[in-house]
Amino acid sequence: MIRFLLPILLLLAGCDDDKTPQNNPPVAKITINTTTLNPSETLILNANASSDSDGQIVRYEWNENNVPFARTSEATWKAPNKEGEHTITLKLTDDDGATKSLSVKVTVNGTSNNAPIAKITASSQNITLGESIILDASSSSDSDGSITSYLWKTSNNETFSTKVATWTPSSVDNYTVTLTVKDDKGATNQKDINIAVLKADVPREIFLIGDSTVNVGNPIHRGWGQLLGTYMKDATLLTNAGEGGSSSRSYKSQEPNEDWWWSKLQSHILSKDTSTGAYLMIQLGHEDTTDDQQQAEDASNKYTMPGRNQSFYTELKAYITWAKSHNIIPVLVTPVEPMSVPTERYYQRSFGDYAQTVRELAEDTNVILLDLEEKSWQVFNTYTSKSKLLDDFGVASSNDDTHFSEKGATTVSGWIKDLACDTSTGDAGLCAQFK
Q1: 290 with 394, same domain?
Q2: Based on the structure, what is the number of domains in the chain?
């Protein structure tokens, strides 16, 4: 029996040479269009670059936190409204049953939140030492929530945490006050305002920029700037640099054969002692108007377009920027209305869009605003007779409803004083320059 055993053993040993070949698992590769998404945005997943060296991939399975959402080589995943990191896993299976998994991580941002908008209303930007200023953040807003905190901080490190704050500076200086508002989702926004604290009862220079309604060069008419000195405590401190025909753009580029232009006024201002404070009063807009938008957009001419951040806005803003950089206090004046009455065919607010742009610029830059357009419109609106209106403000024989007589210019310059001294919209420091 022993002689039969050896062939059987040899036969069994020979079976080892018929082993099933080893199967290589598939290789997983993933490409994605982004790694960061907002809620509801779509992640695009692609596994087409995956491979199997000794067979083929027969199954693709995608899941997020073990929750399957697709079984194709290309897939999409919609980001949930759940902030944080999410893991997307691809599981491959080949034709021999081998599997391979690969994961990618993506971040879903928090729910979209619009930051609040900080806005400041101040009772004045120029006060004399000993006076208080009211800082009001009531016009601040949040479009998709609510403001939960207000913080005021002055450049000398005084702080207030109320919506409306009253501040009494302790020394003469130029201050910056910063308002920070925070909304219910933690977003913040800031706004600055400059406050000048001046010595009490100190005379200050006033410089005027304007067109012929401010300074006219003919013998029968007068601009309101030519009569403003009659209301001042010291008329020698007034420089009327208005120039007929000037727009907000052309005043900067007029030829030196004019009486006044911007660079000449700049040199004049810098030659004066303005250490105790000075004002640059700007009334432009009459010569900016045109019905031709293409003409207004051509920087080679005098015309501009009204509207926030349009050319009229940016041209005016340049004067403000220069004034503030030289510690001169800018004052914006809306353009005075023509002398017209409701019975006239063309009766309308001729400079309404330009006046509104001046108001918006004053708000955006926290500059003193004297709303002469509104004042003149309200007064002229009370007249029913054009001849009576011209008798009181113009020169009837000239058939000119734009330029004032001396009597009219005196009245209008009185409005400038009244607007400067208005306790709700005026400025105490500017008012102090008038009798």
Answers
A1: yes
A2: 3
